[in-house]
Amino acid sequence: MGTAGVSDWMMLKAFVLVEHVIGWMINSSDRSKFAGHQFFIIRDKDPDLRTVGAAAQKGQRNTGSAKYTVINEALVCREAVDTIRPHDPAEYRGFDTPVHEFGHSIEAILGLAARSDRVYKMNIRDYDRKLSREYFSFSVQRRFGSAGRAAKSIPGYEQTYLSTIFSSDETWLPTCEK
Predict the structure, then answer these.
(1) Partners of residue 72 on adjacent β-strands
(2) Which of 6, 71, 90, 167 is deepest in the core (most CB within 10 A)?
(3) What would the pLDDT profile of 79-131 be if each residue is shown by its tens digit?
(4) How many other C-beta atoms can be found within 10 angstroms of the C-beta atom of residue 124?
(5) Which long-range CB contacts under 8 A does 118-121 form with residues at least 24 apart?
(6) How many DSSP H helices and E strands does the chain contain?
(7) pTM for this one?
(8) Helical pair 113-123 and 96-109, crossing angle rounded to 10 deg
(9) What values do phi and psi take at 39, rounded to 5?
(10) CB neighbours of 112 closer than 8 A, spacing ≥ 6?
(11) How do the domains of the chain map onto residue ranges?
């Protein structure tokens, strides 16, 4: 679903992204767990997530949970500043943000938190418990983010972990092409 003003292009690209990532899941029972999951697309002009009762920081317009994923179109396929960190420099963003936020939803829906904690604690020297829910999302982002990133650049332990959830035979990646 998109708010007024979200482009048809973004609506289509988000649909294709979700269809591919869920479609890559090895277990049909995992795929079926996404029935009813809602994917919302908003714009910079829309209120931040605090206005819908979410436990969010001021300016936050992206999140993922077991119930829904929210992304800001302003952070897709363009140079942009994330509204949650308005003083950071602008940087080019492909599909990293939508994939990252959907990664949060995947981890929550599939109940992977404890498993993720074990994998990342064992393999990351400076593992930060406060960021525990970010590691899986960054792995998913590295695997399915912007076109041009090779899955081979992902550390071996991440490839092994992700290969228990997703087929490693797929090569499709989202692109910014119109």
Answers:
(1) 42
(2) 71
(3) 988 777 788 999 888 898 999 999 999 999 999 999 999 999 999 999 999 99
(4) 13
(5) 119/157, 119/161
(6) 6, 5
(7) 0.91
(8) 120
(9) -120, 115
(10) 106, 136, 165
(11) 8-163
